[in-house]
Description:
383 residues; alpha+beta; Butyryl-Coa Dehydrogenase, subunit A, domain 1; Butyryl-CoA Dehydrogenase, subunit A, domain 2; Butyryl-CoA Dehydrogenase, subunit A, domain 3; 3 domains; 4-stranded mixed β-sheet; 49% helix; 17% strand; globular; oxidoreductase; AcylCo_DH/oxidase_C; Acyl-CoA dehydrogenase family protein; AcylCoA_DH/ox_N_sf; FAD
Amino acid sequence: MIDLRLDDTYETLRKTVEEFAQREVAPIIGDFYEREEFPYGLVAQMGEMGLFGLPFPESYDGMGGDYFALCLALEELARVDSSVAITLEAGVSLGAMPIYRFGTEEQKEQWLPALCRGEQLGAFGLTEPDGGSDAGATKTTAKLDGDHWVINGSKSFITNSGTDITSLVTVTAVTGKKDGGGKEISAIIVPSGTPGFTVEKKYSKVGWNASDTHGLSFDDVRVPQENLVGQRGRGYAQFLSILDEGRVAIAALSVGLAQGCVDECLRYVNEREAFGSTIGSYQAIQFKLADMEMRTHNARLAYYAAASKMLRGEPFKKEAAIAKLTSSNAAMDNAREATQIFGGYGFMNEYPVGRFYRDAKILEVGEGTSEVQRMLIARELGL
């Protein structure tokens, strides 16, 4: 028989993050959201809790856990706020994980301990102004000049790229041509503050207003040759595998948002009265909440299934795409229904469901659009 209950270690982690989110994040995150301000204090607390080091070995100041532990933490954070959740997700999945998966031992020893402690943040520079879903259309270049790479180009929509604690961005760049004439794309670490590396003005966003997102530009940026991550010419393939893992993490975050919508609505419908009764007594509201709970439940099962295959070392590309597609749909649908249940109050940023609605849409876009997920699923079916 399949047993989906969390063991004691996972359940203790889940409960700890749930309590942190409710006690520390929920009371103050709305103000950060309104001011579009990065919550450094909360991020520092998350670092002290070890959340940024969850899936990394203790030898790099990690917690010695696994990727599923990270997913549980993301789900609980996103039940309250997606800005803090995406800061953790991007810091781990996109900032630190490429170095851990593909970096040299020297790179791991130099960068990972501070990233695992949450004292520094890393970012992932893949998307470009003219290349969103078509990440292979990379125009940023890196050419060897002696023992240094010289990088020129730009990146867009990069999370965790402009904070006071951002230490590096790993960027994909064209480093030559393959034998068949195609682009040779490699991954290179660019430390923050490198001359010629400019963090552009932060974006004015629809949602995730308390997270950090910028465009980046590179003008003859020189970094040592040894900043190459993994094999030359394998940068694109490396990041495709990183995105498979990241989609499971985004699925967990999406489930958290979907569950947060259920949580907030259950509280509200038992207090709000209309036509002489609490609105939770009306079948129309009950059916909405039943559908919201169903979507959340199914989405959680989808990311659990993808995570289980990942941890067993089995191919999980299709399951990751299914989880990401299912959970982002659930988050968007639940946010819309929650806003409807709250009525005019749901349109106000002071209420969590208003923020949930604004935050949900990007989940159908970031780390692979819903259309890309369908392409991946179809391809894995042999089509």
